[in-house]
Structures are given as C-alpha cells and as structure tokens.
Amino acid sequence: MKKGKVYLIGAGPGDPELLTIKGKRCLEEADVVVGDYLADKRLLRFMNPEAEYIYVGKKAGNHTMKQHDISLLLAEKGKEGKVVARLKGGDPFVFGRGGEEIEVLKEAGVPFEEVPGVTSAIAAPAYAGIPVTHRKIAASFAVITGHEDPTKNESSIHWDKLAGGVDTLIFLMGVSNTAMIASQLIKYGRSKVTPAAFVRWGTRPYQETYTTTLENASEDVKKLGIKPPAVFIVGDVVNLRQDMRWFDNRPLFGKRIIVTRSRSQASRLVDVLNEKGAETIEIPTIAIKEPSDNYKGMDEALEHISTYDWLLFTSQNGVDYFFKRLYDKGMDTRALGHLKIGAIGPATARWLARHGIRADCVPEKYKAENLLAVMKPLLKGNEKILLARAKVARSVLPEGLRDLGCSVDVVEAYQTVSDEENKEKLIETLRNHDADMITFTSSSTVYNLMNQLDGKGELLKGVTLACIGPITADTCRKYNLEPSIISKVFTIDGLVHAIEEGVSQK
Ligand code: SAH
C-alpha cells in the first residue's frame, strides 16, 4: 500500500506568487488538500484537479471544525495512504498551530514534513511599504500574539520588556485587543506618539492600510471600522511607508475587473491587469473549440499546401489550431518553407515566432485593413492565398485580396462558442456590485455576455465598460451600452493602457 504523508504547507499571506516552489510541488502532488480561511483560494489552481478538497477554515468566532478534529482528519487521511497538503495561511509555525497538528500526526505514526511559508507578520507590512527593520531606525522586531485573553491574570507576554526592548512590534490577531495592547505598551514606557499601522488582508488586491499612532490606534479601529485579519505594527519604521509605498499605489489598485475572454486566452490580460494592481474576476463568456467542419477545410488546404503562395493568420488562436493540425498530420514547418507569411499584428507575429517562423508581413497595428495595406505592394495579383481563421469573422481581408486579383481560400481553424458555465457567478457578481469594470476583447464576448443577461443591461449600471477597439464598442452600442474606455491600439497591452488612462482621468 502507498505510504501516506502530510505536508504542512505555509500558503503565504495571499499573493499566490508568495507560495514557495516546494509548497507548490507538494500541492501538485497531493491526493487531498485541506484548506484554511487565511490560505488564499487562488492557490487551489495548483492542485491536481482529481484531488479532494476539504475546507476546514476558521473565521474568528465561526469555527467550521475544531482544531483537534482537523488534526485527526489529517492523521486519518495519512493513514489511508494519501498524500495530504495541509495549507495554512502565512507560515504554519507562526501562530498557525502547526505544532499541534504535528503532535497528533506523530502520535498516529503518520510521516510529515513542514514547508515554511512567507508570514503575514513580515509580508503584510512589506506590501504596505513598511520594512520591519531598517538601518538606523529599527534593529530588532518581534512578532507577538494579540489574542491573549485580556482577563488572564498572568500574561505570558513580557510587556515590560517588549515596550522598550524591541524596535518594531508586530501583533497578529490583535484588532479586537488594540486598546489593551496600546495601553500596556504605553504603561511600560513606549511613547504615545509612536507611529503605528494596521494592514488588513495584506498582499491581496483588496489590501487596506491605516496609519495611526499608539495612542490613537484603538480609537481608529472603532472610527474606521477596522476588522480582522490585520497585522498591527508599532514602531518608527511605519513612517517609511510615505516613501516606500509600492503596492497599493499602482495605477489599477483596488479596481475589480471582469475578464470575459475565453479561459485559454485570458491569462495574459489577467497577468497584466494584476501587475497594475487590479483584482481580476475571470468570467469567460466564450470558449475556443476545434472547427465546426471537424478540420475538413483545413485538412484539404494542408494536403495542397504546396500550391499556395501566401499563408495568413489573424489571431493567436488561428496559429495554435493551424499548427496543432499540421503536427497532428505528421507534418512540420518545412511544409511551409515556400510560403510568404502574414500576421495581422505584432502579437500574432510573436505567436508565430514560437513555431520558428518570422512573418514576412506584419502591420504595426492590428486590423484587417492594415494587413491588406502592407501586403499590397508585395502582391502581383495572381497569388493563391490561404487564410486560417475563426468560423465567424469579418470579410474585409478576403474581399480586399480578391479585389487585388488574388485567389483566397478561407479555412476554419477554430470556432468561438458561448460559455455559460459561469452565468451564475456573473449575475451574482453584478448584483452584489462586486465589479467596477468589464473588459471586452471581441464582439463575441459582448454578444455572449449580453445573452447571459437576457439582453438586458440593467445589471451593468455603474460598471465601466472597456473595449479593445471601435468594432467591439459598436457591438456594445447595439445594446444601448456606451463604453467609456475604447482602446486605440487593438491589443491586450493597448487595452490595458486605455484602462489605465481611463482610471487616472476619473
Ligand atoms: N500563520 C499565519 C498567522 C496566523 S494567525 C502567518 O504566518 O501569517 C492569524 C492572524 O494572522 C490574523 O489575525 C492576522 O493578524 C494575521 N494575518 C494572516 N494573514 C494576513 C493578511 N493577509 N493580512 C494581514 N494579516 C494577516
């Protein structure tokens, strides 16, 4: 029988990229993933899709499962021979009760490993622009529980020593005890005007930071309604935030943006938006599939590829599906050696380069008319041209080429179909006003989104619409919707640039 093992994995404070490489590997290997309230859900994308997911999260005051039962569950799964990934927020050994789980595993004879994580104690301040140490300002820091029962007679926290003995004090689980923490520190000699800060949901797209002073902190918790989870930082390093802020002042920070592109295509847009600070909500309204004629047209063209003079691509999908079919038929790029190759824009050209092909013709800006214009001087007028593209597409390019005397075969490389899997999520997100903006990267994303809303735009009230170009914008107008952001450059980077401009103007 397979031998089970439990990995106690530090999931880090939230930003999925703060998971360690080892943590990711263990997560990928696991048969069972046991998740926590503070372990970011976005990490579950690294899970084996076949693996079982068990949520045992505890939210303050609302315990889903008792700690001892969680430990027993881990032991039980391990004994069944399963590889278990126990995902814990931050670092498992920093107020994470990792030690308690290990005691039970040890007792049960189940092998275990601990994979340290990035603790919120350091990372949340870091993402607020507050280094916990700094030459000349802070030579020491301490991480302290803020959850100690205030009615307890004997405190195990050495307030007298901490107050004056450590430069930076970082309290976890301390929000509801701020008054007690501040008064103890002041009582033992820490200056009332010591800078302090709360960082709530640190490293996440919805991080909140509040700066205050030791004497005003508990007042501010009430006044501003600061809620857990937050770290409370006390010390002069808090002042460094003014100059060292980098995360929550990015151009799209705090913006919640729906991405409607197909899942297979969304990643780049999502990455760029995230990098600029936005929180993205992926709700694909379309999906990309093999051609509706089951490659009939494409196969015929590939069999006669030697008779063509030109091969044109108008999308990355077209490139993907064309080459997939080429390779599936046992051919390779040598079959294309005699062809001139055109790409509708720089992104498609870059995609072609991944197959070792440098396009002969690339307009600076993505648009059928522009490709036609750059090809024109290179054509004699009797060329045979193959165009591999989506089932439904504009006719500008083939018609324009035919007008120049060329013969054009348009073959279907892929089709775009509607994806309704996330309809409920879409409606709920809009109803709860959980989105500030929707991006449309093609007319079909508009059509399919509107279909899911039964053609009605009421739910889109107050939501900014951002379109990749004028054609997509016109499609919005068919539904009486006026996009306020329309990219002039019809690429993902162009769209993101337009969004940034639109947001900064507001
Ligand atoms: N093991 C965790 C801490 C668990 S105790 C770690 O190393 O980070 C729970 C406390 O951690 C919360 O009450 C809060 O004070 C803090 N915390 C965890 N994640 C946080 C985050 N993303 N932002 C701010 N505080 C966080």
Task: Write up this protein.
With about 500 residues, the chain is an alpha/beta fold. The protein has 4 domains: about 5-120, 3-Layer(aba) Sandwich (Cobalt-precorrin-4 Transmethylase, domain 1), CATH 3.40.1010; about 120-245, 2-Layer Sandwich (Methyltransferase, Cobalt-precorrin-4 Transmethylase, Domain 2); about 255-285 and about 420-505, Rossmann fold, CATH 3.40.50; about 295-415, 3-Layer(aba) Sandwich (Rossmann fold). The chain has 18 helices and 22 strands. The strands form 5 sheets. A 5-stranded parallel sheet has the order 3-2-6-1-7, sandwiched between helices. It has a 5-stranded mixed sheet with strand order 8-9-12-10-11, with helices on one face. A hairpin with a 7-residue loop joins strand 10 and strand 11. The longest helix has 14 residues, at about 490-505. The model has no long low-confidence stretch (mean pLDDT about 95). Bound molecules: S-adenosyl-L-homocysteine. S-adenosyl-L-homocysteine binds near residues 94, 124, 199, 200 and 228.
The gist of it:
The chain has 506 residues and is an alpha/beta fold. It has helices at 21-29, 67-79, 98-108, 120-127, 159-165, 178-187, 217-224, 241-244, 263-275, 296-303, 316-328, 346-353, 368-375, 396-403, 423-431, 443-452, 470-477, 492-505, and strands spanning 5-10, 32-35, 52-55, 58-59, 62-63, 83-88, 112-115, 141-145, 168-172, 195-200, 208-213, 230-234, 256-259, 279-282, 286-289, 310-313, 340-343, 384-390, 407-418, 437-440, 464-467, 485-486. It has 4 domains: 5-118, Cobalt-precorrin-4 Transmethylase, domain 1, CATH 3.40.1010.10; 122-244, 2-Layer Sandwich (Methyltransferase, Cobalt-precorrin-4 Transmethylase, Domain 2); 256-285 and 419-505, 3-Layer(aba) Sandwich (Rossmann fold), CATH 3.40.50; 296-416, Rossmann fold.
